[in-house]
Design goal:
The chain has 270 residues and is of the alpha/beta class. The protein is built from eight helices and twelve strands. It has two domains: 2-79, ATPase, nucleotide binding domain (Nucleotidyltransferase, domain 5); 122-253, 2-Layer Sandwich (Nucleotidyltransferase, domain 5). Helix 3 (128-139) packs antiparallel against helix 6 and helix 6 packs across helix 7 (233-246).
């Protein structure tokens, strides 16, 4: 069997692939790269009752992988470039080729993936880390569950300037209820719940718009969303609204948070 480990800036994701192609996933907090890698490996071995001798290879990827060399617990290790791992994992989880992958982590990476050809298009520094940073700076909140709950009770019209605030009718393909300017209104009466929703709205609108432009530039209509920040209900709603504007489809596969680790493991299964 093969284990893939994605060492990110805030979390470490790992996956064990069994010979029958089934797999198990795990997420842990990241500290320094070596502690993250050894801790993730040790935990996935213990949680799944695996013997070290049964592991053929450990494949490392992510920002922290470069600081690790040699073996882990006596198991041979290899590395794969993160963009390649994102491409492989996104194609595998979606069951599709010829697509754009938006990998939502601390920032957002955009990848064009085809069988045998995976390209880094670019991305944006706006991502899950932006949400956490702004929430901490503005609302003094670091707990994502609290932030989700607050945002669910927010009113975007208290924070964002909407098309309907400046025009009596739709402007081109933009409907009156759509955002004209993120935080461009911010009423004195805005509550913390409204600001929390405004943070999510801004971040996911940036991600969605950049992803849409990337897809259109490649004449593609399918965007697979992966990464730690991919499975957020508020984020999905915002992305799907952007998909409707640009006649695109965002796909949110199961186990999307582990796509990069899965892609790493798959690189040794091919």
């Amino acid at each position: 069997m093969v284990i893939g480990i994605d060492i990110g800036s805030t979390t470490t994701k790992s996956v064990v692939f069994y010979p029958d192609a089934s797999f198990k996933t795990q997420i842990t907090k990241a500290f320094d790269p070596i502690t993250s890698a050894t801790g993730a490996l040790g935990k996935i071995l213990m949680d799944n009752h695996l013997e070290i001798s049964s592991v053929k290879n450990v494949v490392l990827t992510g920002a922290g992988a470069s600081g690790i060399g040699g073996q882990l617990f006596g198991i041979p290790t290899t590395k794969i470039e993160e963009i390649q791992a994102i491409g492989l994992g996104g194609m595998y989880l979606s069951g599709k080729a010829d697509l754009i992958i938006a990998n939502l982590g601390t920032g957002t990476a955009l990848v064009e993936a085809h069988e045998g050809n995976i390209i880094h298009i670019g991305g944006t520094a706006v991502g899950g880390g932006t949400i956490l940073g702004l929430a901490k700076a503005i609302l003094k909140i670091s707990d994502l569950d609290v932030l989700f709950d607050m945002a669910g009770r927010g009113r975007i019209g208290q924070v964002d300037l909407l098309i309907g605030d400046i025009a009596d009718s739709d402007i081109g393909f933009l409907k009156k209820e759509m955002t004209a300017s993120n935080f461009g209104k911010l009423l004195d009466s805005a509550k913390d719940e409204d600001i929390a929703l405004g943070i999510f709205n801004m971040v996911y609108q940036v991600i969605g718009t950049v992803s849409a432009f990337a897809a259109k530039s490649r004449n593609m209509n399918t965007i697979v969303v992966t990464g730690t920040a991919s499975n957020v209900s508020i984020g999905k709603r915002i992305l799907d609204a952007i998909a409707d504007i640009y006649n695109l489809t965002f796909i949110y596969p199961d186990h999307a948070a582990y796509a990069t680790a899965i892609g790493a493991a798959l690189s040794q299964k091919q």
